[in-house]
Amino acid sequence: MPATSGCATGTIAGTATAAVSGTTATVTLASAVHPAETVTVAYTKPSTRATRLRDRAHNDVADITSQSVTNNTPADTTAPTFVSASVNGTTLKVVFSEPLDESRAATPRHQPFFYTVDSNKELHAGSLTGLKGDTVTITLPDDTVRHGHTVRVRYVKPSESNGPLRDLAGNRVATILGFKAVTNNTPPAFKSAAVDGAALTVTFDGGLDEDSVPAASAFTVTVGGSAVSLAATNPVAVSGSDVTLTLANAVRNGDTVTVAYAAPGTGAVLQDADNAKNPVPDFTAQTVTNNTPAETTPPALSYMRADGSALEVVWNEPLDRDSQPAASAFSVTTSTTGAIAVSSVDSFVEGNRGLVMTLASAVAADETVTVSYTKPTSNPVRDPAGNEAPGFSNVAAYNITSDTTAPTFSSATVNAKTLKVTLSEELAFWSTTPGSAFSVAGSISGTIAGTATATISGRTATVTLASAVVAGETVTASYTKPGTNSLRDPKGNEVATFAAQAVTNSSPADNTAPTFDSAEVDGRTLTITFSEALDEDSVPSPEDFTVTVSHDIPKVAAGGVAISGDTVTLTLQTPTTHNSVSVYVRYTSVESRPLQDLAGNDVATFKNQRVDNVTPTAGAGVLVDFGGGCGEDTCPDAPTGSALSGPVDGQITVTWTPAATGGVAMRWWVGIRKTNLSADFTETTVAGTARSHTFSGLEATTYDVQVRGRGSAVADVGDAAVATGLTPLDDDQMPPGFSSAAVNRTTLTVTFDEALDTGSAPAGSAFSVTATPSGGSARTITGTGTAAVSGATVTVTLASAVTAADTVTVAYTKPTSNPLQDAAGNPVANFSDRTVTNDTSADTMPPTLSYMRAEGSGLEVVWNEQLVLARASRPAAAAFSVNGSSSGPIAVSSVATSIAGSRGLLLTLASAVTAGEAV
To answer: What is the domain class of 82-184 according to CATH?
Structure first.
């Protein structure tokens, strides 16, 4: 409930809550009214009903305006007294015990306050600049009170005509006889500054708050009249009464330096360390004492870098911009170009630490660049202190010239199957360029592609060719840049496609003739594979080949010989069948039309080489009916045109055509099940595209085949196809075939192409070998005892040993009883003239005499091992001499073979020895 007055107090509001008692409401005012004031009261009904004045019937009291109030306030006769005083810089504030009269008549005409600083002489406080309430504000002269000063103040009451201070009741403030203590809140202020190199220290006259560190932008430092930057990291540090600024660049001895401070509008500011935390006042450019010592160290070379025709030389400190030497003071040398002249010295860079020069010609990427500097007599490189940079010689510069040049073909060599292509520069050793990107073209060999992955070493890519080039032929090389993993240098510059580049052919002469490797027949087509590529123009006559099929000899059709790579394909007049047991091929080399390799080496005649019969049986096609539901409203129609074929040689082929699927791509599953056999195949297809899949390695008698389809928005068509009772595989009707043979003295080992029945061990005599010594006559050695069968191997003991020098072949004649056969009972067919590897070691021990036996005119001389007893190798009779103890010398008439297993000789004597005499 506010009370109002027309006196000096003005409007005074009520506080707290009115106390109501009967018909009276009591209110405490915010301040007292004076005794002589005329007072009125007003009441404004609150907006909240609960807080309104009302009678007991809850009728609200209406608003009251300017109703007279009887003023019973007693008269004020107490004068204001001093309470406290504080100073901040030039502002002194004195607080009294009650509000003062602020009228002009009560304002002193002359300053009645005096103060002392650090107990020095009394000073006049200057002008009174403010009177408000209980506080008087006085402005002191500049720079009289600083942080830490002890300040005291007193008041001398002026005369009535000079307006003494008084309260609202007119009670005058009495003179303060003694000085009163003043709280000094003046913050620290700039005191001095000094710099040494890059460290500039600003000292204040009081301690600073070390946790309040302003940004570097609050300070302005000039060197020689130009503003300089502070360091990027930790530019400002506060410690005690010092602020240390770290400059981005050190000042030099003799530089004129200033520093200024302006408190930032936001963020930390410099402030007092005490509880007042008053901000430090700004200060303008203050002189900084430069304690930086004189510099006597000359600039040192920091680094150099070359980029094309530009060379940058940088020292470790800023240079005097008037010290720009002539271009002739510098010389440049590169590892490939040699000396390059410096055309001009152009400008300063790197904060005046370096010079940029233009070279007469650009350096190439990856060149080694060295630079020399000879200090000239005029304008040598120097720092602002006049210290001259020393000269230097052949110092390496960084070469940052970009490499945009791709390697190019330089040369190539080939040796048989190894092609080496050398490029103009080093290649990326991590390149995985496919060998197929390379090829060679030979005047004899034709085009030969590279294989595997090229091997990179330095500038060279090495590629293995699919076949060897021929010695002496003209060869060119080509390279087609692939889409990925292309040949490139370490900077990524790709080698471009090149064609028909000359190649040095270092291939040795090929003196090795091609040899038979393998053969197979399928119906009318018989394919023979040799050990190397053949000359496709050396086509023999069909008559040069003989094919034996189970004792039949179907002829090779006219024009039925074709050569491709390392194979010869024969077209037979009569096809083989799946049941054809023994198929062999032989070739007779005819001098006028020999089969040759690319080097012209003739294929030698070969006999009865086994041919693998891969002719399939005729399998019945079985139509497959597709059906079954899908379990969903939307599903593809069953596939159409589906069928099974087989089994043929353990294979079944399923074919089908997906039906309409509404444009949805289908994933088809094809499976075959029998006992624990399982195979499947999935492939995404679209409608109308015929598909097929072949299952191999089947050995059951009945098969269930299923085809299923699933699309992205459709369901499984279920087991859409089931077929059972297919024709089983034929029984094994293929007899074992000869694979290889080896002999070591009397032990013959023959290996077949499948396991044999161990119970079918024929007599050793079913086998025989023909041993032919070099330059000698062939001899036949038969097997003895019973052959030993183990797996696919048969071991036979020969009647006599072969020698290391013998060329050996083996023959087998199927006996009437206990012939060799496989587990299915297929007997091994007769064979002859099959090559045998002779593992017999050379015999270097001479025969030693075993015994001699004389009987009448016959004398038998026997050694410890078999002898070569051909007539041409028998010694003459004169080589022997015989003496009888009673008969004396007896001449030897002739020399013949002995009966002692080829180990001895039988000598015929000119006269018989007598019984009992020593011979």
So the answer is: mainly beta
